[in-house]
Write a structure and sequence with these properties.
By secondary structure, this protein is an alpha+beta fold. It is built from 4 helices and 7 strands; from the N terminus they run βααββββββαα.
């Protein structure tokens, strides 16, 4: 079950964001708990060295994914001044309406079905090439079509999209 990521701006003490999207805290907590369960399983399967290593590696992998998801909250946000903010591992990037070249929903095949993904083409200030950024349900914590509608409502979707 996915939870609406707009959780009363608890991660936004200054009230900078008008709306934001991120991986749900419940999903991050589930990864941490799952990592602990796998870690306990690795300790209890000490008779099989290869199995212990693989299960321990899976536990560490779950913790890494949880840490990356927690560090990038909120993943995408609309600020009060109408610009678009993206949080990545390299830091926070803010783009104005003029920097957004295209926004659209594309359906990609995943696990035997086609799932919607939010594609943004952004031309950062001072650069000649566009950057393609793709967000899925995991990144946004909600259906990408809902995020597209919110961006469109606030005028962040260029008319040629």
């Amino acid at each position: 079950m996915w939870i609406n990521p707009v959780d009363n701006f608890s991660n936004d003490p200054q009230g900078v964001y008008e709306e934001r999207w991120a991986t749900p805290v419940v999903a991050i907590a589930a990864l941490v708990v799952g990592g602990f369960a796998l870690g306990i399983g690795a300790v209890l399967s000490s008779t099989d060295a290869a199995g212990t290593f693989l299960v321990g590696l899976a536990a560490v992998g779950m913790w890494v994914i949880a840490a990356l998801a927690a560090a990038q909250r909120p993943r995408l946000a609309i600020t009060r001044d109408g610009s678009l903010t993206m949080k990545r591992l390299g830091g926070i990037r803010t783009f104005s309406r003029a920097d957004i070249v295209r926004v659209k929903i594309v359906r990609y095949p995943r696990l035997g079905r086609r799932v919607p993904m939010l594609e943004l083409d952004i031309r950062p200030p001072g650069e000649d090439d566009d950057r393609l950024i793709i967000f899925g349900r995991w990144d946004l914590g909600t259906d990408p079509r809902d995020v597209f509608d919110a961006l469109n409502t606030r005028g962040l979707v260029p008319p040629n999209s």
